[in-house]
Amino acid sequence: MNPSTVLARAVIGQLVANGVEHLVVAPGSRNTPLLLAAHRATVAGRLRVHVRHDERVAAFTAYGIARVTGRPVPVLTTSGTAVGNLLPAMMEASHTGVPLIALSADRPNGMLDSGANQTTHQLGIFGTFVRAEANLEADSGARSVRHQVARVLAAATGIRNRQPGPGHLNVRLAEPLVPEAADDDLDWLDVEAPTIAPLGAGMLTELDPGPRTVVLVGSGTQATGARARRGAEEAGLPLLAGPASNARTGEALATYRLLLETPLAERIQRVVVYGRPTLSRPVMRLLSRADVEVIVVADGSEWSDVGLHAAAVTDEVLLPAGDPAWLGQWREADRRVGADLAAMLAAEPALTGPEVAAAVVASVPAEDLLLLGNSQPMRDADLAPTVEAPAMVLGNRGLSGIDGLVSTASGAGLGAGRPVTALIGDVSLAHDAGGLLIGPGENAPDLRVVLVNDDGGSIFHTLEQGDPRFNHGLYEGAFERLFATPHGIDFHALAAAYGWSHRRITARKDLSAALAAPVRGRELIEVPLDRADRRDLEDRLRELVRSTD
């Protein structure tokens, strides 16, 4: 089947599934697959198509329909200046809160900046006037099309934030632009769209009690974490709470990340998601499984659907009472793996990353703040035992960068007026060394930075790049130079240069003692580790759960 035909049918199908009833089109060549898909939808009785010769007229026509119906109305154009002609109507729609959708055909990405005819940078052309935009290509896949169309239309209708306005769907279509002969025999295919509940509408999604359910909590606020935890515990469901979820207490399963790689996880049938669960690959695999129903509880106009097949997005869910046997299996597995993990780490000849993270998490009082740095520290904290009265946990999980972490922690302390402990890696500190500088006349927070220093990016030892073959033969030296990137920084000298106190700790007992002291002033606690054994440690962590079922 022609890839452009497949993409166009998917886009039009998802528009219809998301409630689009009218489509205004202007003729063109590059938008042929979308025009023909729209025609097929019209023949099937699913869509009303209106044709206008001029794109500017088409846009205002679509605007008028959307204005009186309150429903999203796309205007379809070919590529090039045709898209620019939509701007006046898009501006008007932005200022009047009307869900006008620019549906622009585009050339393949590889033709940009090549001098190809009718080819320009179309994504972003409407600037701040659109509420959301998305780029769709032939390799996007049905799941991606489903998610992106729903996301843009939800933003345009303001269903999640009560701020309706225009949206933009840019569809890159490659030649041939007409269907293959065999495609003509295909019937119109109805598709399903995710159910997006209005924000603050008081809508409560009630789940049936059948499927084996777990509650998964990614990074989020204390309010979101508390809501997720309360719901899971009242329903008697397994609670899988990430390190920055603010739900990692009470009945939360401390070793859930390891348990997700066991046969027990294969029995999960439904996941209720709170927050932003983007941390680990086992979580990503779970949320991408076609046999698992995903229900997303969202706080605003954006929601997390990393598997791109959420069945519903809602303000709140009524969780059904779980099977006590199901919960018991998870608790017993967590208890057993947790004990094995503690014994394994205690037997290590030197401090390990998970031990440092566990000590830090346990040391921060409930009235303080804890910032977990991205990359390896966050993942190590994901193995830490739960604590009875945890501090508010912060994590820059929007894009998960390792830059700006010291500055984030400093700002959090100033904003909250509370002491902060930050657990970060050495490369992260190198990125934000300037964050250590606070002028003598400035307010400074009480900030303790616990620096896990393994002289480079230890996380790459645990990823594909850490495969030994990338440090031998043809790739001799490639891993250390290109991924591990050792730096040899003297952090004692760095701390002194910026007026911070510095301690270097290598023993478990000394670490506990240092962390037990209240956070006062600006303090850098450096814990040197050896990253050479990191890949082996990860392998042994997985071995802990081989026999768990």
Automatic annotation (TrEMBL):
<dbReference type="InterPro" id="IPR011766">
    <property type="entry name" value="TPP_enzyme_TPP-bd"/>
</dbReference>
<keyword id="KW-0479">Metal-binding</keyword>
<comment type="similarity">
    <text>Belongs to the TPP enzyme family. MenD subfamily.</text>
</comment>
<protein>
    <recommendedName>
        <fullName>2-succinyl-5-enolpyruvyl-6-hydroxy-3-cyclohexene-1-carboxylate synthase</fullName>
        <ecNumber>2.2.1.9</ecNumber>
    </recommendedName>
</protein>
<dbReference type="Pfam" id="PF02776">
    <property type="entry name" value="TPP_enzyme_N"/>
</dbReference>
<keyword id="KW-0474">Menaquinone biosynthesis</keyword>
<dbReference type="GO" id="GO:0070204">
    <property type="term" value="F:2-succinyl-5-enolpyruvyl-6-hydroxy-3-cyclohexene-1-carboxylic-acid synthase activity"/>
</dbReference>
<keyword id="KW-0464">Manganese</keyword>
<dbReference type="InterPro" id="IPR029061">
    <property type="entry name" value="THDP-binding"/>
</dbReference>
<dbReference type="InterPro" id="IPR004433">
    <property type="entry name" value="MenaQ_synth_MenD"/>
</dbReference>
<comment type="subunit">
    <text>Homodimer.</text>
</comment>
<feature type="domain" description="Thiamine pyrophosphate enzyme TPP-binding">
    <location>
        <begin position="390"/>
        <end position="517"/>
    </location>
</feature>
<keyword id="KW-0808">Transferase</keyword>
<dbReference type="GO" id="GO:0000287">
    <property type="term" value="F:magnesium ion binding"/>
</dbReference>
<dbReference type="GO" id="GO:0009234">
    <property type="term" value="P:menaquinone biosynthetic process"/>
</dbReference>
<dbReference type="Pfam" id="PF02775">
    <property type="entry name" value="TPP_enzyme_C"/>
</dbReference>
<dbReference type="GO" id="GO:0030145">
    <property type="term" value="F:manganese ion binding"/>
</dbReference>
<dbReference type="InterPro" id="IPR012001">
    <property type="entry name" value="Thiamin_PyroP_enz_TPP-bd_dom"/>
</dbReference>
<comment type="pathway">
    <text>Quinol/quinone metabolism; menaquinone biosynthesis.</text>
</comment>
<keyword id="KW-0460">Magnesium</keyword>
<comment type="function">
    <text>Catalyzes the thiamine diphosphate-dependent decarboxylation of 2-oxoglutarate and the subsequent addition of the resulting succinic semialdehyde-thiamine pyrophosphate anion to isochorismate to yield 2-succinyl-5-enolpyruvyl-6-hydroxy-3-cyclohexene-1-carboxylate (SEPHCHC).</text>
</comment>
<dbReference type="GO" id="GO:0030976">
    <property type="term" value="F:thiamine pyrophosphate binding"/>
</dbReference>
<feature type="domain" description="Thiamine pyrophosphate enzyme N-terminal TPP-binding">
    <location>
        <begin position="7"/>
        <end position="122"/>
    </location>
</feature>
<comment type="pathway">
    <text>Quinol/quinone metabolism; 1,4-dihydroxy-2-naphthoate biosynthesis; 1,4-dihydroxy-2-naphthoate from chorismate: step 2/7.</text>
</comment>
<keyword id="KW-0786">Thiamine pyrophosphate</keyword>
